[in-house]
Amino acid sequence: MSTDRRVGQRRIAQAGAAYAKEKHLESKISLEEMMGKIEGEIDANDGIYPYNEGKLTVDELLRRAGKSPAYLQKKTPKIEALKYEVNAWIKRVKGQIASGAPSVRREVNSRVKVANKQIDEIRQNYHEAELQLTRVMAELADATRKIGELEKRNTELLKQLAGKTVVSLKPEQRK
Question: What are the coiled-coil residue ranges (predicted)?
Fold first, then answer.
């Protein structure tokens, strides 16, 4: 009976180890996917981490990946290796982003100034186009009025000619 018990315990230990290995792999994949997503968000926001007041930390990464803040505190070789990888990634990414509220505020304010300058240019172009449209509409109205006067004059001349015989001034050539 003791051998049966040992076999059973061994099977339980193997199943537990397999489950732990699978769970660790899922957690690692989850963290790596979140790292990629965060890098994409930083790229999309021109070097600013858009959450947590612009602060990217290990705890923020764990929170976004759905892990406990204590997850990387375990003292197993796999977790310690993962913790080293995460810390290296955080250090690398932090060097590329504007972090902290004052830095983010400065960056956002400079972007707002650029956007406001572009808006002012658009407004100026719109006003210039509006003035040009007004001028062209006045020219069109003047041209339409002149065309009407000329058509009226042409009609009067045709009426005057209608009562008279018209003779060609150019002699016809005979064959």
Answer: 105-160
